[in-house]
Structures are given as structure tokens and as C-alpha cells.
Amino acid sequence: MESKEEILRIIDVLNDTYESEEAWYGPSVVEALRDVTPKMAETRLSANTHSIAEIVYHMTTWRIFAVRKLQGDAEFDIKTQDKDWKKFPVVDEFEWEAIQMELSLSQEELVSELEKVADDSFLEEFVPGRDYSYYTMIHGVIQHDVYHAGQIGLIKKAAKAMRLEEDDDYGAYGDRSDYDNSADYY
């Protein structure tokens, strides 16, 4: 019987990066998204940057890509800009909840697909339609999360610096006491 130890370790790291309160590098994705209001989610720091809503959509898109590849779908791809970086000019409460729920569901589906893998040798196989292994793809999702969690944190911090929190839509975000130690992370 083959071992599944590496896959189980990868699932642990994937979950820690996504939702742990003790990720060693700083806030997990879920922590980074905590207290992000719809108004903050739609905010762009400049014309050539993405909003938090767009980043979360993008993260979901690539999780779905990984799931489809784990399912053996060689044809699935992300070929259009709108499929990868959907624009959200206005984000209301319902849409922001939906965007976050889709991310959460894609995380659950990704972990579920990995749990189905029989043994670690699967990680050495090449992803259908790609020139890299499943090992590389899954670690890419983890690295992608760390990168974008950092971006989300920076956008939140910049929004605070821009004093956007004065708008009532930011709710408790205007309370700076929760963010006094955040400089250690970004």
C-alpha cells in the first residue's frame, strides 16, 4: 500500500494558508478578509490596481482550475481576462457575501478532491494540458494565497490611510485599536 503522507501534509498547509489563525507568515486568507466591508471590497487604490473583490474572484477562479485539473479535465482553461479578473465596479452586501462564499466553497472542493487521491505518487503526474506536476500546481495555489492575502492586507491598510473608514459603510473598520500591531504583517 502506497503512502499518502505528503498529500495529507499539503492539505494541512493549504488549510493553514486559507484559514489558520497561526499561519507563520502572517494573516491567512480568511484573516485578511475579516472585517472587509462591501465598500472596502470594491475600492481600487488606483486605476491600474485590482479591488479586493476582484482578487477574491481571481483566487476562486484558480482554485476551480486546480479542482478541474485534479478531476482530469484536460480541456478546462482560463483563457479570457473576464474569467480570470472579473470587474466589480460596485459591490453590495449580497454580492460580497456571494464572492466570499464561492471562495469558501472552492476551498472545500479543492480539499475534497485532494482527499480522494490514493497515494503520493499522484503528485508526480503531470496536470492534464500542462507541463507541470500536480505537486507544483497545488503548491502554486498555496503560494498564490499567501501573495494575495498580502495584497488584501495592503489594500485594507491603504484604505485606512486614505481615511475611507470615515464612511459609515466601513462600520467598525474605523476603530484603529484592532490594527495597531498590523504593521508587523505588511
Automatic annotation (TrEMBL):
Pfam families: DinB_2. Residues 30-152 form the DinB-like domain. Signal peptide: none annotated. InterPro entries: DinB-like, DinB/YfiT-like. This is DinB-like domain-containing protein.
